[in-house]
Design goal:
575 residues, alpha+beta, ibrinogen binding protein from staphylococcus aureus fold, 4 domains, 37% helix
Length: 575
Amino acid sequence: MYIDALCAAALAGELTKSLVGARVQQVIQLDRLTHGLELYGGQRQWLLLSADPRRLGLSLGIEKVRRGTSGASPLQQALNARLLGARLRKVSWPPWERMLTFHFQAAEPIRLVVELQGRLANLVLLAADDRILAAARTVDAELSRTRQTLPGRPYQPPPPPAAKIPPQPLDSLSLGAWLAEAGDGPAWRVLVDRLRGISPLAAREAVHRACGAAESPAALVDAAALAAAIAALLAPLDGGAWETGLAKDQPDGAGAALAYAPYRLTHLPFWQPTATLTEAMTAWEAQRGAADAYAAARREVETLLEEARARAARQLESLARAAPDPGESEKLRLWADLLLAYQRQVPAGAAEALLPGMDGEVRVPLDPQLSALDNAEHYYERARRLGRALRDLPERLQEVEARLATLDQWQSDLDLAESRPEIDAVHAGLNASGLLGRPLKARVGGGQAPSRPLELRSSAGLSLIVGRNSRQNEAVTFERGARGDLWLHARGRPGAHVLIKSAGRDVDPQTLQEAAGLALWFSGARGEARGDVICTDLRHVMRMKGGGPGMVQVREERNVQAVPLDPRGLGVLRS
């Protein structure tokens, strides 16, 4: 469950009523992706904002947020410097987007943009001129060719999907043509693929209201009735009369929550109204947290990953600070050459010497305790050390960047872990890597055998093998693969290695789309509408120097665009 565009619109109205005018009293960091703001405007409330895909993204309550254990992130430092004492002036919602913008007034106007987009979620602090001050996630050109999120750069909102149109106003003739084109496919998928701001939950609700069955084939749904149902769902955007609550699996408020929404969910069993959407979301999140038997184990490993990531980032900063000036070595070598050439003109005990160079006199500092010859040798040695440092620097930077990439992969492993052994495998890998700089006490697993790569059959009958963590990726790519197999991986993100066992045969387009969809599903792109996937022959994949298990580099590749694919849509051979 996530915050969709209609939820974001409802939240903007709620937060405007409850928080506008409040002053920021305190800023607390739970972890590098999650921050809490204490706001006081007649009563004390805590606004929790997160770019962590495992959290809900936004919550509001009166209980104090607990401070985390990791050091202050750049965003936390910027929030402390800019927002303390500031007043919240407005909460805005860009139409049809899963985003909210909090407008603060301090010494100057400051905005905090909350991008509630699943695994692409981010918190971005902006100056009055739209310049990025800090972000929970920094995105460089390697991660995104079209949109970078870096301090000092102008902020670019997420681009709207090119193939989708706003659902207001909606032409029933166009809707009828889309439904006819989809044929036996689900009608709700037509709405998700064609309309901005319509989530699968909202689409299923609209279809149910139109014909009484949320999973109805598109060809059986009346376009006019569906257009009217969509208009009814969107009507509160004009007046703000949202009907917030939870759908539950038992009546009278008992049982488990199935979903929350700012509109009544008639296609799910029992509706429990709530005073606000934030109340419904808080109840759903509390239930989800209680249901995760491995929540404490996840948090422990998450904290260790944060510590290791901060250590690697400090190493990267240290290397950048210590990087020698390329011209310094040449200057020292010139001084040494001049001292050798004119050593007889250098008086004993001199602190410096003026020696003739190609473009005039050169002032050469000297150690008075050394002879001209010894001073020259001293400069030659310093020049040699600087030269070695310059030659070694790219490799050392690459090693630290490989460590950070390994940590990102382990974070993905942790996010996707479905059992205690899979969580413990991340802990064990981190311990064995030495990236923490200290040993960890071995953890006792839950008794389950480690999971194996997922084996599936494509709709055309080809075998697909999916690695769902770094250890499985290592096995998939370097043990299960053979010459002629196709290899796929979500572009610019940690995630699954997927093999198409093609043995050099041509792969049909449907199988390629299914394999690419699996690569997106088992990556940080699961919550997106579409994504880019690297596809290459297995022979072009090699281990990354300095990287952990399953970390690779690719020599030649092509790009495949696909939709994330739930593996339950294919035949499972083994998992």
